[in-house]
Amino acid sequence: MINMEKEIVTLLHGAGGSYMNSLIKDVFLGLYDGYGEIGLNALDDGAVINNIIFTTDSYTVRPIFFKGGNIGRLSVTGTVNDVAMMGGQPIALSLGVVLEEGFPIQDLKKITDGILSTAKEAGVHVVTGDTKVMERGKIDGIIINTAGIGVRPSQLDHNIQNLRKTREPKNWLVPLNLRPGDKIIVTGTIGDHAISILSSREGIGFEVNVSSDAAPLNRTMLNVMEVGGVADAKDPTRGGLADLLNDWAEKSGLGIYIKEEKIPAREEVKSAVEFLGLDLLELGNEGKAVLAVSPEYENDVLNALWSDPLGKDAQSIGEVRKDIEGVILETIIGGKRYISRPIGDPVPRIC
Amino acid sequence: MSYSSLLRYYKDPTLSKAITQKIAELAKKIDEGIMIMHVCGSHEWTITHYGIRSLLPDNVEVRAGPGCPVCITPATDIDDAVKLALDGIVVTTYGDMSRAKGTKMSLEEAKANGGDIRVIYGIQDAVKMARMEPNKQFTFFAVGMDTTAPATAFELLKGIPNNLSFLISYRYTPAIQGSVMESNVLGIDAFISAGHSVTVTGLKPYYPYFLKSKKPMVATGFEPLDVLMSIYMILKQIEEGYPKIENEYTRSVTWEGNIKAQEVMEKVYDLDEGYVRGVAVFPRAGFRLKEDFKKYDARVQYGLKDRTKTSDEHVAGARCGEVVMGTIDPPECPLYMKKCSPQDPKGAPMVSQEGTCWIWAMHKIANPSPKCRR
Q: Which GO terms describe its biological process (chain B) (predicted)?
């Protein structure tokens, strides 16, 4: 519980871990007034009002240009994916840009180029925007906010229809749809974005040839929903798989059991993780989804993913269980450990 | 061959199963509680990360001793770093360290209050930053053990920029582990020594302590098979009734150690008494800069009082020191998961990823092997 009188905001409060959770719950949830089919209190990727999905996100990544993308590309994929993870088809975005006095127009143009090409890739349109400039030193270069709206695609209806064979599902892809026995599928290699960003930051002292995976996943989501049996989907951004799976376990009241050997990751990423003493499960991704899939659809969903360039490395990594609590990982040597929500951004260890 | 594919041999599931089986057989033969202590945060990380405790028999317990750098760094040293940061000096340090609280606040909180704190991955990063920003004053908050002390010594001998100073809080592992080996109060049967530290110091400095204690000690690497193998070697020694200093980490550890690193350290530091946070002052456990390098000592430069020998401070009501020494389990501390949690840590063992309390909390360890308690 946050001490309202004494505490101040630290970077931990923005890092997607348990600090951020308590900030949201203790401070922002006070805004919830009961509105929305899926409202603020769901703390999901977005809200649903009048059958429209509505979501927003702000982007502050440093460096703003990195291997595999830039802050512009990220500001489209992040918001598009939030809509897509609820089962929606994103259609339009708003774009708010806050600039620091002195920011090179040339860089801004590169960023808007990134926004345009990524929006085309996703099939969405930037339809409204806002620009503000702040005095030098008041912000660091650029901050972008995008909001997105999405509609309900026929594939989602088909998917929910299929789910009805085994359960009484909600109308959208939400954690309450999870049932024991559901398979956990990740759509590709884990950790690419985090390691790419980390290695392009100064002062890290190592370089890894890994590109960010930032990509819009809405078409991929339509493909898997066309197969059917998808109970929920989430993108493992900040906080990574560890945060996502704990979120599922908490919201569904079920346990999740995953196997380390099944989790797909690039060799370079695994090396960096070893080298820096990080935890792969806590690394952020910007072009991956985690799906909970009804077991009879597991193979078909995997096959659909494997024929999609954004899902070619997809793997089934575990399942939802009712006989355990929380998230348990079976390690590569056969040991077991609980996975907790990460606290703050991953930091390398000392020794 | 890539780094990670080379290391895969040390994580092999078939081999690990075989060693686990052997451990179970030996433990059954020995048939009494065996308490093994390791003294390194990285070992704790390997043990929890790979779920090694879940693979051990009920009568074998591996317990963390004083080895996590964040846990043993005195709060007064953190206070000094915080003070420098709030006075406008750029403080560089390792990631975990920024979250540990001094008597008033952590470096992270100092950052939220306007301090310039930079997380770095090695001393070279601090040197580079100081060179690139010559108009600013930098301090490197040098915490850790003999594993990181040589790198700092090496940079000092090479020559460093004038705008970089050092707040040295290094500790000498053999002195700390040795004192624990000599003490019988803890009821520890055997020791897993930190492979990287012994790589530097060699096994030699442990010999006098071993002669007095006659307890098995195995220098151990950091892959899961290293740890399992060393547990096997310890049980074997106990079963045969023949304790010795053994080397599991033969690909790195020797009797003499890294002579070059030792020479560099001897040129730069003296060994003096060193305080381990919440525990005690250990003889010859603290590194101090030699006279020739005093001008780089942040304590000298900024007139900070040297409190490393005498400092003592506790979190009110907490039993951090006993946890660090392995004499109690975290749940025996009245603050554990009540006033002190990973989300809101009060004591250092709850801050660091290598701290026992943090690890118990994050991995929901309740009572790993009750048969071991005596």
A: protein maturation
Residues B57 and B201 placed together within one structural domain of the fold: yes
Q: Sort strands B217-220 and B60-64 into parallel, antiparallel or unpaired.
A: unpaired
- Are A343 and B61 in contact, with CB atoms under 8 Å apart? no
Any A CB within 8 A of B66 CB: no
Domain edges within chain A:
46-152, 153-351
Q: Span A153-351: which CATH code?
A: 3.90.650.10
State how far residue A328 is from chain B, nearest Cα, in angstroms: 9
Spatial separation of the C-alpha atoms in residues B134 and B122, rounded to whole Å? 19
Q: Contact B363/A338, CB-based, under 8 Å?
A: yes
Does A349 contact B54 at a Cβ distance shorter than 8 Å?
A: no
CB contact under 8 A, B50 and A350: no
- A63 part of contact set with chain B, CB < 8 Å: no
d(CA A268, CA A61): 22
pLDDT number for residue B210: 95
Whole-prediction pTM value?
0.84
Into how many domains does chain B fold?
2
Give which of B11, B12, B50 to mutate to test A binding, by max A Cβ within 10 Å. Answer: B50
A131-172 residue pLDDT tens: 999 999 999 999 999 999 999 999 999 999 999 999 999 999
CATH topology of domain A46-152: 60s Ribosomal Protein L30; Chain: A; (3.30.1330)
**Is residue A348 within 8 Å of residue B121, measured between CB atoms?**
yes
